[in-house]
Amino acid sequence: MAEPSRDPPSALSADFMSFSPGDTASRWLACADLQQEVYRHLAEYVPRVLCQGGGVAEQREELALQLMLLAPLEWFLLGGEPAAGLPLLRQGGGEALCGHVFKVGEPTYSCRECAADPTCVLCMQCFLASVHRHHRYRMTTSGGGGFCDCGDAEAWKTGPSCQNHTPADRNRETEEDPVSLLPPAVEERSYSIFSIILQYAVDLLTWEQEDQLPAGLEPQQRSDSYYCMLFNDEVHTYEQVIYTLQKAVSCSQKEAVSFATTVDRDGRKSVRFGDHQFCEQAKAVIVRSTSRQSKPLRVQVMHSALVAHQCFALKALSWLGQIIQYSDGLRRILCQVGLRPGPEGENSSLVDRLMLNDSKMWKGARNVYHQLLMNSLLMDRKFKKLFAIRFAKNYRRLQTDFMEDDHDRLVSVTALSVQLFTVPTVARMLMVEENLMMTIIRTFVDQLRHRDAQGRFQFDRYTAQQAFKFGRVQSLIGDLKYVLISPPPQWSQQLRTKFLDGFEAFLDLLRCMQGMDPVVRQVGQHIEMEPEWEAAFTLQMKLTHIITMMQEWCSTDEHVLIEAYKKCLSALSQCQSGLPDGEQPISLSLAGHTVDTFRYQVSQEKVSIHLPVCRLLAGLHVLLSRTEVASRLPEQLPLGDLSPHLLIELPLRCLVLCAQVHAGMWRRNGFSLINQIYYYHNVKCRVEMFDKDLAMLQVGASMMDPNHFLMIVLSRFELFHTFSATDLRRRFREANKDLAQQNTLIEEMLHLIIMVVGERYVPGVGQVEPLDEVRREILHQLCIRPMAHSELVKALPENGNKETGLERVIDSVASFRKPGVTGRGLYELRPEWSKHFDLYFHHYSRADQSKAEEAQRKLRRQNGEDTALPPPRPPPLCPPFASLVNLLQSDALLALEGAVLQWAGEPNGGGWTESMLQRVLHLVAMALLEEQQQLESSGGDEVVSFTFSSKITRPGEAPSTSGSVLALLESLQSAPHLEVHKDMITWILKMVGNIKTTRERTSGSSVSVSHGRRPEETVRDKDKAERKRKAEMARLRREKVMAQMSEMQKHFINENKELFQQSMEELEAAAEHSPPSSEPTCATQICVGPRRVGGAERHQLVTCILCQEEQEVRGHGRAMVLAAFIQRSTVLSKNRRRGILDPERLDPLFMHPDLSVGVHTASCGHIMHATCWRRYFEAVQQKEQRRQQRLRGHTSYDVENGEFLCPLCECLSNTVIPLLPHACSPDRSVEHPCLETWLKRTTQQAAALDSTHRKQSHGAAQQAEPAVPDGFGVGFVPRDVTSTLRNPFSSGVGEMINTFSMSAYKVGLKVNPNEQDPRVPVLSWSTCAYTMQSIERLLMDEKKPLFGSLPCRQDDCLSSLTRFSSACWTAAPIRTVQNHFIRLLSVLVLVPDSQLEDAPCFLDVDMFHLLVYSVLSYSSLHSLDQSGRSSVDSAHLHLLHLVTVAHLVQVLLTSTAGEPSMDQDGEESEEERLTCQLYGRLRDHLGRCLPDVSSGWRLWRCVRAGVLPFLRTAALFFHYMNSASPPADLLGTGPGQWEALCSYLGLPSNLLLLYQNHRTLLEPLIHRWCCHPGVGQVLHGGGVLVRFPRESNRLIDLPEDYSILINQASSFTCPRSGGDKSRAPTLCLVCGCMLCSQSYCCQTEVEGDDVGACTAHTFTCGAGIGLFLRVRESQVLFVAGKTKGCFYPPPYLDDYGETDPGLKRGNPLHLCSERYQKIERLWRQHGIAEVIGHAQEANQTLVAIDWQHL
């Protein structure tokens, strides 16, 4: 790389040493032209200090910058030493505003009770010191850029300030100018220096020339040094940029990743430094490489001096932001300088220039000046309003620039709108003075340019680019929402005028939406291409809250409401001028009524689902009723201009369209229409779509003759001719094939009538409160099933403040049921609210309605009630809507009801449906309830005009010849085919009787409730009697069937007597033989040594899960295997830092007590034949090979690594354990030598064997042959061992032994299989020992008994694993195993003449592993003993004794008994005396290494606790190896555990007797152990000292409050990105390390692959298994290896017992200890890989995630 000539660092250092900022400031004070002098200084020093291309140390650059550039500014400003002057500027009293600017991911808190809107938030410190912490609050994470609203009185209804920001004197703050508090000299200098520095920064940040500098900044000597500067865009991906940089500037991938990360973070980065030509070459390559698919990356070749000045400009702006924090006066001065108009006039102030050039700047520059604006203008109340005016004046231009820009809104100046428009006083001021509302709406409409011929919006195909553009346009809607979020408490005339102007502009916008995306029914052929519909609905969803807020504003002022209503009606008239009013007029007649309308068929003409103008009018009309303006000021309303026929036309078409889609008439129009109908009813849109259409029908129906309304509805549903004559219905039925469609339309039409009359829970339609509406919504959701809080929130519409009103009413209608360890908390409906259930609730989907009906009928049956579901009592209607009830008694509806009831009388007619009849019965019931309610409310004083009960007794009119509705109902009551409706018909007839009784009473007498109920009670008694009779008949029928079955069984047994006799005899024989094999007594239960109780006669019969054949487990039989999973583990590790560094050279024979990495085996417990498993596994391999050719990608298991899923339970497995027979009974015939004899003989054998091996290896003659004991056949090793003892198993079993050995070796050491490696048997023993230890720890921590509490799968696994381990030496070269035994023995005793120099220090050996390895390898030595005088069992017992003593010494050496603790009073026991004695001997050997401990009790307590885990695991090991039954005491957790354990292991309960009884033998051994140089080194702190008992590892402690975690994560910076905040901070739950996940910056290479921080961490912390908490997503991440992972529910729940993934709901989260314990238990049981496997099998999308990049 070309290096230009530059000042050498030494020159800069000399300047640095001699530079005086005070002298420079003095020179500036004395000069005439300050700007010229400052610019001269900057021109000289900035290029020398900053951007030294040679890579000057960052720290040195920062120091030089502070001393030479910023310090003179501070000296000049303060007129002296800054360290003394700056604190003096701080004024007394606390800050009134907090103004803390949020970092990305920092927690923010909003009070749901007190916040003016959801954008009002507090930082964590202010929240904890405020009153809001005890309220209902919402917690979210910040996207960065906003600031804390503490101290802003307009942001909070109550408690605006926390304890830290309560202003000392609010009056002074509002009246006094803070500048007057500054010394006059400081004030003058501040104006001067702020003007110069701000001018300098603005000039440079808006500078567009690449090779020149602003006047006064040109360097004296111009060098040919340039930067090739790469700028960020949001078009190109990381991969494209990395690839391009590698090609353009010849850098490594790591450097390219670093460049790309910095460009993405800061917005630009220099990728090459050198002369002009050198940089131009790089620019050309970058532009050429990236211009093929899209616009090229932006690259500039910039002079180094310009880059240096731009860097300093950013530093200077940051400095200004810091300086003004010292004084409100300095802040006010900076605000004045920034907003002072320049010489150019309009938009010439420095702040204007910055804003208008925002889209041209890079990301880093934008962030810095936005931060300064927030620290200055937005923190000063006076200048905040002045800045808001400048912002509003430039609003259109700023938004247009933003549309053309491709950067996120977060880094655009337009994002500051949330800081300005959400302040109610500022928003209203801007609305009045700058007509802001109209500006926003007009800007929005201008951006959506595509229109059709009628001027409606027309959206093209929704491409990714259009979606991006449309997404940016939607930010304008967000700004409008901010302006409207708080309705004004008082209106001025100007505000009214400007709001109505804005409302008119909004109506223009809605007019462009009215009728957009029209559809025509496709007939014959399916639609070829799905039409675009998403954009229109996205727009509708975004505008939903705006429309609602507009109505809220209108409702607060009568004048505004009336004017808005007029304007809306006028707009609707203009929209409807195109309707075919008068074209093809028709006259309809039904039931003696006639109406004139026009012909229109939804199934043939164009129809649109978008009718926002019409719906807004419906909302305003309901408001007129709610505010009683309609009744008080009718003369001011244009009610006479309303044409009800036209009002209902468009909404009715829309509802008919929905009905026809449900009926299947629009199937050929594809999914786009189905999706539109779905969203039309969906909770996100329905408030301003479906609900308003229904309201408009209610408005129209209340103004029309009910018969006319119904005839028009029939006409639009295309059902008029069906009901105009019954015989026509029959003819139509015969001719029409689509009878099902016709029936569905009738059902939908009847449902619509039910909704129009019955839906009264809208304030203004019915006399209800808003909370009644919410309560009804919740009630009907809970009638479906119990629901979680989040489900209820999703089912309710949110208002503009993201509130549903749920919390205010939920407790009155529902009771909460807390969750368990899984699941969610659920709300259940209180029983007393079931009576309010309405089967035809208008927000039910068909599926919801069906579920709710079933649930309610089931509930009524359980309560012993009838199954009728009558409508609930409705609230009264408001006066303008009072005439709606007349629909229920209209002649047209009675004719409809009569027709349906008549059809229902024909069982096989087919022209009606159950749903149709159900709806008619519901309508009849509604009418009767209405009449009863009117009678009750009149009290007999008034004449009730609602006479439905008398009308239904009239017979049907011509041409219908049916009887009256009542007569039809009575005839249907006993119809057998209508059994399901019988209860409802009975209820209706009962109601008719009640009403009749009530009407017959004299007007003067009051209605007695008990009297009026008599007929009802008699009917109910009849019903009960009927039900009782049916139940009795059913019982008799059941008894008869049972008697028949019993008779048939007896008959069968008599016929097959012989068979049953044989079975009984076998059972009896088995019973006779069972007593002798009962449990032996405690005294005889020993699991190790010659006196052990074996299980030789135990035969094990197992069944293969694949072929279902039963097989006995035998050594020479067919091999049976157990599916198993081996994995490396650090669950027990006490030293995670010490991993396997070099697996090829690692010696695993001596496991360190820190258990840094172990090998764990688990099994699902399912057994197969080895041959069956082989066939299954080969089939899996072949399937995988075929699959990979079609579809490359990961599955939940990796076949190449031998993984497969258990064929039965699909549990992840990667090997199989061979099943071997139980151990033989001990040989009682041989002698049992004492420890001394055995040890002498064994050391002689080991020495002889070692000598022979060395002789064979080196071929050299030994100087002295060691003595060989009698009968020990050293010379006959090959023949004897191979011929007889080495083959106790068939070839199939041997092969499986080899298979598992290789798996343990391959996984444990992470190496390729090598059968010749001497470490193979060691890894098999290791996994046995480690698995035992981990299970013992689990049992201990969960306080479960040692035996009898393990699940079958773990019990089978341990049993098989131990028996395999005891046999696996037979598959290895015998010499290898013998060598292992000799080395193991040398740790404990001195093997004579051996040359083993690498025996480790006994403190560095885990004694349980040593015991297991020694016991399992001893057989290789014993197999050479031909004397027949010794037994393996004796050796096992002696090895146990030796290792136990060694462990006792280990525990004493590492004990903490010297630490102060309570002493035990009383006499010293034998155990304590002997422990003190042994400890004294150890002190003699080791001198001062051990502290002096006088308390024997304390020592013995330490020994007993420390050695207990060893004894427990040893008991488990020998229990499974020798198949010895455990004593009863160890099957429980009561007292006597220690004695039972010692007895079971053949040890004295006073373990010190082991030492005492063989003191002469053991003393030299102990002396040898203690004299090892490693012991002193470890005790002096030179190695890893592990104390016993080892504490169980736990997952890290998590804070109870989740926000503490979020706060920690927000302050976590990426360790590789120079202080950049991590985007996905992830916490390791195992070690507590915070990681920068899912980012390029922290990728590292592991085993040849680039992996993310989490995956890399799992290999060092968890041996490939990781548990992480993704803090910002509130999600637990499980990772296994590089390719497998899954997400798991986090342990944090809200008050409703639910998790909150992604923190979307924002409810406060608290730690659920039970769920965290469950995760911890999974980890400690080594179940993480299994959970991942099951999760990936259940959810295939998890397989596709690149887990290695997390």
Polypeptide structure, described:
The protein has about 1750 residues and is an alpha+beta fold. Helices cover about 50% and strands about 5% of the residues. It has a 5-stranded antiparallel beta sheet. It has a 3-stranded antiparallel beta sheet with strand order 4-3-5. A 3-stranded antiparallel beta sheet has the order 13-12-16. Helix 52 crosses helix 53 (about 1405-1420). The longest helix has about 40 residues, at about 1015-1055. The model is unreliable at about 1-10, about 1000-1020, about 1065-1085 and about 1275-1285 (pLDDT under 50).
Structure summarized in a few sentences:
With 1750 residues, the chain is of the alpha+beta class. It is built from 64 helices and 25 strands.
Chain-wise SSE layout:
Layout lengths: L8 H10 L2 H10 L3 H16 L8 H21 L3 H8 L17 E5 L12 H5 L8 E5 L28 H6 L8 H22 L20 E6 L6 H12 L3 H14 L1 E7 L1 H15 L8 E5 H20 L4 H12 L10 H7 L6 H13 L5 H13 L1 H10 L12 H5 L2 H10 L2 H12 L16 H21 L8 H21 L20 H22 L2 H19 L8 E6 L2 E6 L13 H15 L2 H4 L11 H19 L7 H12 L8 H14 L2 H11 L3 H5 L1 H10 L3 H20 L11 H15 L4 H7 L10 H8 E4 L8 E4 L16 H17 L28 H14 L9 H25 L9 H4 L13 H9 L8 H19 L8 H4 L1 H42 L1 H17 L27 E3 L6 E3 L7 E10 L28 E12 H21 L13 E2 L6 E2 L1 E4 L16 H24 L18 H9 L5 H19 L10 H22 L10 H16 L6 H15 L18 H16 L9 H23 L15 H17 L9 H27 L14 H8 L7 H6 L1 H12 L2 H7 L22 H9 L14 E4 L5 E3 L7 E3 ...
Antiparallel strand pairs: 1-2, 3-4, 3-5, 6-7, 8-9, 10-11, 12-13, 12-16, 14-15, 17-18, 17-21, 19-20, 21-22, 22-23, 24-25
Helix pairs in contact: 2-4, 3-4, 3-8, 3-12, 4-8, 8-12, 8-13, 8-14, 9-10, 9-11, 12-15, 17-20, 20-21, 20-22, 21-23, 22-24, 23-24, 23-25, 24-25, 25-29, 27-29, 27-33, 29-33, 33-39, 34-36, 34-37, 38-39, 38-41, 39-42, 41-42, 47-52, 49-50, 50-51, 50-53, 50-56, 51-56, 52-53, 53-54, 53-56, 54-56, ...
